[in-house]
Amino acid sequence: MELRTLRYFLAVAREENMTAAANSLHISQPALSYQIAELEKETGKQLFLRMGRKMILTEDGMFLRSRAEEIVALTDRTETELSEGTSEVHGEIYIGAAESLSLHSLAEVIADYHQEYPHVVFRFYSGTLDDVYEKLNRGTIDFAAVVEPFQPDGCEVIPMPSFDRMGIVIRRDHPLAEKNAVCADDLYDLPLILTTRRSLQEKQYAQMLGIPPEHFNVTASGNLIFNLAILAEHGIGAILTLEGLISDHENSFLTFIPLDPPVSRSLIFTYKQYRPFTKAANLFLDAVKQAFLIRQGD
To answer: Are residues 171 and 136 located together in one domain of the fold?
Structure first.
């Protein structure tokens, strides 16, 4: 499976039309059709459904697209890094991050770093711990900032110096909205919306909150907090989340109520052991250690 063929495949997936894809690639449409047919023959899978002039990815095609995007991105990044000069620090640093107000502490380090090395570009990927950790293992990101608990496998870990309170986001017209904090008894059988995380199961959430599993009532889950907020606005449930991720200004339908006793979560800065970094990434790692490890020692 050649890299050039993967680029052709991604162009067809993007344009959903063979002629448009061929034009974007500056090759003939018959030549592109032949390459896609050969790719399907090589993989033994039908990658597209032909619907008139429209090319729609099959399930196998969607799987290949996700892998092909990573392969092409990693190849392009490697070529760029190898072609970089040594007289000036430049390049790209890839960071996967969970949604958290604690990211402010990392943003401060990035701001200081960027003052010294203005030609370095930071590329962020936001997602759940599972999504971010998968990319870290594949080498498509350099570093990750994830919410504890986190059992690293072959990773170095640097605790970040801030914490976020956990609580629920609920409609302002709900009876619980009048409380300053909610306890386990308040959450018995309360419809809850969870952020998706394969490594943290529902029974672990129940145990963390002190709720018997039979009274832990999950009505929905997802990985995008914006979409979950829409569900909460319609009364589908209260979102179990960190403080500050959903707007709860006075004109909002929703409000945040912290847990009692308090439960807090911190971000962890992590990276794979023994992984070779670019000069830009090594300098950034030094800056993170300087900022976080020294601050913890004070």
So the answer is: no
Residue found by looking up tokens 């590329």 in the block: 123
- Indicate whether 40 and 154 sit together in one domain: no
**In a shared domain, residues 38 and 68:** yes
Average pLDDT, the chain: 87
Considering the entire predicted model, what is its pTM?
A: 0.66
The Cα–Cα gap between 266 and 104 comes to 12
Please state, in angstroms and rounded to a whole number, the distance separating the CA atoms of residues 256 and 188: 18
Residue (of 109, 111, 100, 113) closest to 146 by Cα position: 100
Domain residue limits at 129: 89-162+266-297
pLDDT digits (tens, 9 = 90+) for 205-244: 888 888 898 899 999 988 788 899 999 999 999 999 989 8
- Count how many domains the chain has: 3
d(CA 189, CA 143): 39
Of the candidates 215, 191, 189, 216, the one whose C-alpha atom is nearest the C-alpha of residue 205 is: 216
- Among 211, 210, 214, 241, which residue's Cα sits nearest to residue 226? 241
CA distance 270 to 129: 11
Structure confidence by residue, pLDDT tens digits, 24-59 = 888 898 999 999 999 999 999 999 998 888 899 999
Residue 294, pLDDT score: 65
